[in-house]
Amino acid sequence: MRVTTAFNRLLGLEAATVAAVEIGDGEVIVDVRRRRRRVECPCGYTSRSFYDRTTRRWRHLDLAGTRLWLRAEIRRIDCPDCGVRTEQVPWARPGSRFTSQFEDLVAWLAQRCAKSTVAELMRCSWESVDRIVTSVVAEHLDDSRFDGLRHLGVDEIAYRSGHRYLTVVVDHDSNRVVWAAEGRTKAALEAFLDALGPERCELIEAVSMDMGTIYRSVVQERLPHAAICLDPFHVMQWVNEALDKVYRSAPPGPTDGSISGLEWRRTRTAIRTGAERLSEDQQARVRRLRRRRYQLWRAWELKEQFRDLYRDTDPTGAVDYLNHWCTSALRSRIPAYQTLVRRIRKYFDGIINAVTWGLSNSRVEGVNAKIRLINNRAHGHKSPDALIATTYLTLGGITIPLPTQR
After folding, report:
1. Is 357 helix (H, G, I), strand (E, B) or coil?
2. Do residues 193 and 218 lie in contact, with contact meaning Cβ atoms separated by under 8 Å?
């Protein structure tokens, strides 16, 4: 069997044949020739005439641990729309010095490990890995990711010290990142809604978010029909803060002599713990509070009743339940809870929407944790665009086929 025939079978290049093989010191150079005579611009325009020609090499997958290069004559075309552009070749992406199979393998590895590790394994530079990730993401990322969006989650994540943030939009139904942009601003979310378009915006039914006003004002203005669901975790933080105020306002004293400083601190742990996770000793501490520190016990009971809003309450009865809870909290005459009731009534609709739609920002927080892992394993990224590209590649639902799976 001839060497060129063997390499034709090994490489399986589309629309090209192997013309010659040169085996050198630590590398193999394969000269390839296209079967098609017409010159094609990356935009799709074709012509029989060309502007000029030169010879170029593309890095391909290693062969038995040896670097393999494809070498071919490449021409430039004078496109009426794009101007003078280098022609499109079937084995590589436009403007790349790597073959598509090499880039796909790099992108597949970059989904799973740090870029520096990929660069060492594939014997290329870190900058090349970064450019490949950006190129592959640009090819796979299109407007189809916006189709069928109904329930969204919006949050920000700090990617660098100095208040450097990304705005992240997650699809609750598919757990995919559908948008990421630099900044914690209205403009970052408005850019997403502009990309979504009026027709797709009309299909959005609910958006979950935290208590910040930046994103809420944009949703209220651009998506007035969508339900805003305030994250239950942040609402429960308010309740726990009110409980802590009651605890601090009733320190152990000589009034009954029954609670020492150590016991009082253990009591604080007990009242912060959910009722279903209390140990027998903690349950006994809570029961003693009812006899000795009734106001603190009542504050703990109200906290547990509020938790039932998210755990056991029928969504159709959420409004009545929350109204009843607010009345009970006011009647308790506990100042911290009276202040809490005013705060809850201010955000009443958002709290009820979270119960009705069953949405929280927990899924978004999980995505944020993965973004932090992506950033940490790379020891930071040189720019927010590089981190955004890696985020799309890893969490955007992009599937990269391995060369062995084709």
Report:
1. helix
2. yes
Q: Which residues pair with 171 in a beta bridge?
A: 152, 176
Which residues, including other chains, have CB under 8 Å from residue 393's CB and lie 6 or more apart? 107, 110, 111, 133, 136, 137, 400
Q: How far apart are CA 14 and CA 75, in angstroms?
A: 18
Place of tokens 């959420």: 318
Structure tokens at 185: 């601003």
- Provide the 3-class DSSP secondary structure of residue 385: helix
Specify the pairing of strand 27-34 against strand 52-63: unpaired
pTM: 0.87
pLDDT at 299 over 50: yes
Predicted local distance difference test score (pLDDT) of residue 329:
95
Contact between 380 and 158 (Cβ < 8 Å): no
Higher pLDDT, 12 or 225: 225
Torsion of CA 172, 173, 176, 182, to 10 degrees: -30
Place of tokens 């086929």: 401
Residues 191 and 183 sit within 8 Å (Cβ to Cβ): no
Q: What backbone phi and psi angles, to 5 degrees, belong to 85?
A: -130, 150
Check pLDDT > 80 for residue 162.
no
Give φ, ψ of 196 to 5 degrees.
Answer: -65, -40
Q: Distance (Å, rounded) from C-alpha 31 to C-alpha 52?
A: 19
Question: What's the CA gap between 314 and 312, in Å, rounded?
Answer: 7
Residue entry with tokens 């990269």:
400
Q: What tokens were used for 86?
A: 């280098």
- Angular region, 274: left φ>0, alpha ψ -120 to 50, beta rest: beta
| CA distances to 107, 173, 394 from 111, in Å | 6, 22, 5
Both tokens assigned to 168: 């992240």
